[in-house]
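Q&A FORM
Asked by: J.P.
Topic: structure of Protein FAM135A-like

PROVIDED:
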Amino acid sequence: MLESVIFGKNFKKKLAADGKSFVIEEKYLQHAYRFLSTLRSCLLLSYDGLYSYFISVSETLPSSCKLELEKLDLKVRLSELSDKVTEIEDPNDLAEAINSSLILLSSQLLNLWGKFLQSSLKIEQEKKQIKVRSALNRL
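REPLIED BY: S.T.
REPLY: Here is the structure written out as tokens.
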């Protein structure tokens, strides 16, 4: 299943001349690299967009609602992930490497999303506390 997603729906392993290993045709390798490049770019752009939005919203918040954020250097991250994938000598390991790369990026995006939600919850709690204090002051 993973291999058909990474290499394309028509992917079939071919037995190498030695009869012990498999060879992946160039067209399937190119599909895998394009697939990775597209998804990786989407995830990194999503991270960057959410991070930028989070920072712009956070500028107006009280310090009690602000959270520490890790800013990813997207160019460096992209380069690191590209290097890891291109260093793979056995094309049969490529699907797992691509999967691992996408899982890592997805987890970083999910972590940022969790912090965004956590900050939003803090803001709502702060607003409720202000309303309660305001109501008590009127009494």
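FOLLOW-UP: The chain has one domain: 2-138.
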